[in-house]
């Protein structure tokens, strides 16, 4: 995992004028964002998603980058206060490597995730909303992105494409990216369904184990009512069942015992003792 923190945005200047960033390469953009930052190496897994889904997503971003003719297509995951580049296209410039983490402030994807809406910025330098943003200043000039949602509507992250020069893409390319968005969300729905089914199966197996414990004959003392376990130890009834099931005991006193032990309190005055 690569984590970028306390980054210092870099905007090349000649004299007092800012230099346009069209000539900046994708890797230079990443290096600019990372300038002055702490880059930490880690073997920590980037996701609990199954490898089959992750590898398919890699194919999706590569196919999208080829189809769009763009330097970089990414699947990003929102992990506040950071954004993680979850999968990144590798067909051309490795603009933003998978595993990189960036603070969310000032990113196009932060807007897409928070608003849960599509965003297209053909040229940030000509757009007053984005001209002063971090990503525009370091050379990410064009952006198109969609939110990626879990089935319950919560945000997983974004699917986006970026360019270091003006790029309006077009309706056909936007529709293609939207189709890829639907495919990714279908994978998220499938993963969530699998997780829910696995959890229900665990509950059923636990319930079945409890049923198995209650099957058969239990050796029980006729005097103290202790139960003998499989190892020959005698255990109190409560301890025996609590150790093998999810049963929890609360204690009271039955009418017969109340009359025998505390007759003066008349706890169950209407009760007829059992012979």
The topology string of helices and strands comes to EEEHHEEEHEHEEHEEHH
Mean pLDDT: 79
Radius of gyration: 31 Å
**CATH superfamily assignment of the largest domain?**
GAF domain
In the CATH hierarchy, the architecture of the largest domain is 2-Layer Sandwich
Uncertain residue segments: 1-47
How many DSSP helices? 7
Strand order of the largest sheet: 1-6-5-4-9-8-7
* Class derived from helix and strand content: alpha+beta
Query: CATH class of the largest domain, please?
Result: Alpha Beta
Describe the structure.
The protein is an alpha+beta fold and 275 residues long. The chain has 7 helices and 11 strands. It has helices at residues 26-34, 51-68, 108-115, 134-137, 171-213, 237-244, 255-261, and strands at 2-3, 13-14, 17-18, 72-79, 82-88, 100-103, 119-121, 142-149, 155-163, 227-228, 234-235. The strands form 3 sheets. Strands 1-6-5-4-9-8-7 form a 7-stranded mixed β-sheet, with helices on both faces. Strands 2-3 form a two-stranded antiparallel sheet. A two-stranded antiparallel ribbon has the order 10-11. Helix 2 runs antiparallel to helix 5. The radius of gyration is 31 Å and the shape is elongated.
Summarize the topology.
Layout: E1 2-3, E2 13-14, E3 17-18, H1 26-34, H2 51-68, E4 72-79, E5 82-88, E6 100-103, H3 108-115, E7 119-121, H4 134-137, E8 142-149, E9 155-163, H5 171-213, E10 227-228, E11 234-235, H6 237-244, H7 255-261
Any key phrases for this structure?
7 helices; 35% helix; two-stranded antiparallel ribbon; seven-stranded mixed beta sheet; disordered N terminus; alpha+beta; Beta-Lactamase; single chain; 275 residues
